[in-house]
Write a structure and sequence with these properties.
single chain, alpha+beta, Beta-lactamase, 2 domains, 8-stranded antiparallel sheet, 3-stranded mixed sheet, 29% helix
Length: 424
C-alpha cells in the first residue's frame, strides 16, 4: 500500500474584500447568478452516479459567500458525511501556492524571470536533451540550445519529465527518483539535473516536476526551509490555519477518505491512507503536491488572488504580479502542448491555466475569459473569475482524475449555456 500511495503522489466582508479585482477584467456580456438548487442537484448527482464518495463546494462572489454545499460521505466506512471542515488532499492545487511564494521573491528583486536557472541552482548548467535513437537503436543526446530560465520552470517549458514514459529520458527520470520522499528539495533538484531533458527548453509545453524546482529555488533564494517560508509568508498572513504538508495527528480524523474507481465502482481505500499521504514522516516537502487543506482555507487563497494579491488588509503580491501570473505565457510558436488543450480554450500562465476565450465546444467546461485555475489529481478544483468577481473551490477525493466532475460543477455554477465574454 505504501509504495502505491507514493506512486500516486508523483502523478494536477471588509472594504478591501468588497472592492473589485485589482487587475484588468474581460468585458462581461452575461450576468452570472448563483442558483443554489442547481448546484445542490449537481453535487447530489455526482454521488448518485457513483463518481465520488463525497463532494463539497464553496463559491464567493462580490465579496461575500454565495454558496456552500455538500453531498455524500467523507468516509463511507465510518458513515461520516462531508463537512465544511473536512480536510482533503489537494495534490497539484499545491502548485499555485508555490508559484505565489516564488513570485514574492521576484517582487523582492531576488531574480529576473529570464535569468538562467543555473545562475541560482548550478546543477542545471550544461543540460543534455534527448534527441531520439541512432541507427543502432541507441539513444542520442545533444546539448541544450539555450539555458533553462526561471520563466521556463514557471510555465512548464523547461523540458523536464514527470514520471515514467516512452523514452530513455523518462527511464532516467524513474531511475533518479527525484521525488523520493526520504530526500530534501536540494537533493531532489540535484537528482533531476542528472536526467536528460525531453525537449529543447522553451520549445514545448509539458506538465512536469518544474514546480518542485520552484520550491528548491524558493529555499535557495530565501535561505528558509520551503515549508517554513510558505507558512510564514502565505498561510499565516492569510489565516490559512489548516493547510499544511504535515498535518498534526489531531486532524487526521477529519481527513476525507480516498476513493478509487475500480470496475466501474468507487472503492474506498483503507483507513491508513490519510496517515500515509500525510507528510508528517517524510523529509521531502514538494512544491508540486502534498498539501492538505479545507474549503475555507483554500478559498481564502483564491480570494487573495481575485483581490489582486491582498485579503483583509494583508498584501502578499502586487496586483501587477497577479496579472502577470494569470496571463498566457506561451508563445504561439509553442504548438506542442501535451494534454493542455483538454482543459479547454486555454493558455498557461505561471502555475495556472488561463482561459483565453469562450468555450469552443458544447462539451467544454463553462467559464469566463480571463479566468485562471488549476486542479488536483484526486479531482479537486479551484478557479478565479475576475469578469464575474467570483471564486470557487470544489473538493472531492476521486482517483483517477475525473474531469466530468468539473464539467458538471462548472455548468451548475454558470448555467449550462453560459459562454461569457469574448476573447481570442
Amino acid at each position: 500500500m505504501r509504495a502505491s500511495l507514493i506512486a500516486l503522489s508523483l502523478l494536477a466582508a471588509t472594504p478591501a474584500a468588497l472592492a473589485p479585482p485589482a487587475f484588468a477584467q474581460a468585458v462581461q456580456t452575461e450576468t452570472v447568478k448563483i442558483d443554489k438548487a442547481r448546484i445542490d442537484a449537481a453535487l447530489q448527482q455526482m454521488i448518485a452516479s457513483d463518481r465520488a464518495g463525497g463532494v463539497s463546494a464553496l463559491v464567493w462572489q462580490d465579496g461575500k459567500e454565495v454558496y456552500f454545499g455538500r453531498a455524500g460521505l467523507a468516509d463511507r466506512a465510518a458513515n461520516r458525511p462531508m463537512a465544511r471542515d473536512t480536510i482533503a488532499q489537494i495534490y497539484s492545487m499545491t502548485k499555485p501556492v508555490t508559484g505565489v511564494a516564488l513570485m514574492q521573491l521576484w517582487e523582492a528583486g531576488k531574480f529576473r524571470l529570464d535569468d538562467p536557472l543555473a545562475g541560482y541552482l548550478s546543477e542545471y548548467a550544461d543540460m543534455r536533451v534527448y534527441a531520439g535513437k541512432d541507427a543502432a537503436g541507441q539513444p542520442r543526446y545533444v546539448a541544450a540550445e539555450r539555458p533553462i530560465t526561471v520563466r521556463d520552470i514557471l510555465r512548464h517549458t523547461a523540458g523536464f519529465a514527470y514520471g515514467a514514459g516512452p523514452t530513455p529520458a523518462h527511464d532516467a527520470y524513474v531511475a533518479a527518483a527525484p521525488l523520493a520522499l526520504d530526500i530534501d528539495l536540494a537533493e531532489a533538484s540535484r537528482r533531476l539535473a542528472t536526467v536528460p531533458l525531453l525537449y529543447q527548453p522553451g520549445s514545448q509545453w509539458e506538465y512536469s516536476i518544474a514546480v518542485d524546482v520552484q520550491a528548491a529555488l524558493v529555499e535557495k533564494l530565501s535561505g528558509q526551509n520551503f515549508a517554513d517560508y510558505v507558512r510564514t509568508h502565505i498561510f499565516e498572513p492569510l489565516k490559512m490555519t489548516e493547510t499544511a504538508w504535515r498535518q498534526p495527528d489531531t486532524r487526521l480524523a477529519r481527513f476525507a477518505a480516498m476513493y478509487v474507481k475500480q470496475d466501474g465502482k468507487m472503492v474506498q481505500q483503507d483507513a491508513a491512507t490519510a496517515r500515509m499521504l500525510n507528510f508528517q514522516d517524510h523529509k521531502l516537502t514538494p512544491g508540486g503536491f502534498g498539501l492538505a487543506s479545507t474549503l475555507d482555507d483554500y478559498q481564502r487563497f483564491a480570494r487573495m488572488l481575485l483581490n489582486g494579491g491582498s485579503l483583509d488588509g494583508v498584501r502578499l503580491l502586487k496586483p501587477s504580479t497577479v496579472k502577470l501570473m494569470a496571463s498566457d505565457q506561451l508563445d504561439p510558436a509553442i504548438e506542442q502542448r501535451a494534454w493542455l488543450p483538454s482543459k479547454g480554450h486555454v493558455g498557461f500562465g505561471f502555475d495556472f491555466a488561463v482561459r483565453k476565450g469562450q468555450p469552443l465546444t458544447a462539451e467544454e467546461s463553462r467559464g469566463a475569459t480571463g479566468e485562471f485555475f488549476w486542479d488536483g489529481m484526486a479531482s479537486t478544483l479551484f478557479w478565479v473569475d475576475p469578469a464575474n468577481r467570483l471564486t470557487a473551490v470544489f473538493f472531492v477525493q476521486t482517483l483517477p482524475y475525473d474531469g466530468t466532475l468539473h464539467r458538471d460543477f462548472r455548468a451548475a455554477v454558470y448555467g449550462p449555456g453560459y459562454k461569457g465574454p469574448p476573447g481570442d
